[in-house]
Specification:
Blueprint lengths: L19 H4 L6 E7 H5 L8 E7 L3 H5 L7 E8 L2 E9 H8 L4 H8 L3 E4 L1 H9 L8 H19 L2 H20 L6 H4 L9 H8 L12 H21 L9 H14 L10 E2 L1
Parallel strand pairs: 2-4
Antiparallel strand pairs: 1-2, 1-5, 3-4, 5-6
Helix pairs in contact: 6-12, 7-8, 8-11
Length: 272
């Protein structure tokens, strides 16, 4: 199972819940667009921006011609005082990231905060379980390590919560085969420090605030312990060591490219 808890955009604390006017300006066909970042992770702040991530589908001529293909597109704008940014990868690049392994792109693909979807999105989601391996533990260990070092430099609550979120997501994935990025949900499924709900509540006040609560020694001990648990669950995990759907993903990319579709015949698919 690789679906996250189904939560609406409103319940996720998004300051803007109708994003259709914004996606209407996206160049070229979108396969999907979802909300990532702090809103997906379950600890947005009042001043958090909205991170939109997804996939677009380049026409075949853009890949075989002389022009440099626009494999990654980035757009930032402001709406009603809220900063939004949309980053999408071409389908082939996104699938290659899925195969690395890369938990970050899987969280985007499987995010329950869907603002734009299509038949291609559905097919990609259906194949997601076949790319999950024990090696995803390395992704979450590495991401947690980066955030922990960042926390050591800036002392911010945000980087501390990102550290715990990554470790708990990795542990849960190794145990269940489910990509669960929502920290409040993870706290009901994985043993975690009792002070985390208090830290989540504190971050709701502002995006960049200093970490408060438990002392540094306690937090260091807990982070170290979760690293140990992640390594242990990886050893015991029933996930395979290698991807099992490489050919299926290859066929999907080829079919989507030849058909010139990202959305089953409509350039913007179905926007929620």
């Amino acid at each position: 199972m690789t679906t996250a808890t189904d939560i609406s955009l409103e319940r996720a604390g998004l300051p803007v819940t109708d994003l259709r006017p914004d996606l209407a300006h996206a160049p070229g066909p979108l396969a999907f667009a979802t909300v990532s970042g702090a809103h997906l992770y379950g600890f947005p702040s009042r001043d958090s921006d909205v991170d939109l991530r997804g996939v677009h589908v380049l026409p075949a001529e853009d890949l075989v011609g002389l022009r440099e293909p626009e494999e990654t597109r980035t757009r930032m704008w402001e709406r009603d005082g809220v900063e939004l940014d949309l980053v999408t990868h071409d389908l082939r690049k996104f699938v290659r990231l899925m195969l690395r392994p890369n938990g970050y792109v899987l969280e985007q693909l499987l995010s329950p905060l869907v603002v734009h979807t299509s038949p291609l999105h559905t097919e990609l989601t259906a194949l997601a379980p076949g790319v999950l391996t024990r090696n995803h533990a390395h992704h979450y260990r590495g991401f947690a390590g980066t955030q922990w070092r960042l926390h050591g430099n800036n002392g911010e609550l945000k980087s501390l919560l990102y550290t715990f979120r990554a470790l708990l997501t990795g542990i849960h994935l190794m145990r269940t085969g489910e990509v669960q990025a929502h920290l409040p949900t993870l706290l009901t499924q994985v043993d975690a420090p009792a002070y985390l709900p208090e830290l989540i509540a504190a971050k709701a006040e502002a995006e960049h605030i200093a970490a408060t609560g438990p002392d540094a020694e306690t937090v260091t001990r807990d982070v170290t312990e979760l690293h140990r648990v992640l390594d242990e669950t990886r050893t015991r995990s029933r996930l395979p060591d290698a991807v099992t759907v490489l050919e299926d993903l290859h066929d999907l990319v080829v079919r989507a490219r030849l058909a010139g579709r990202g959305t089953g015949g409509h350039p913007l698919g179905r926007v929620r």
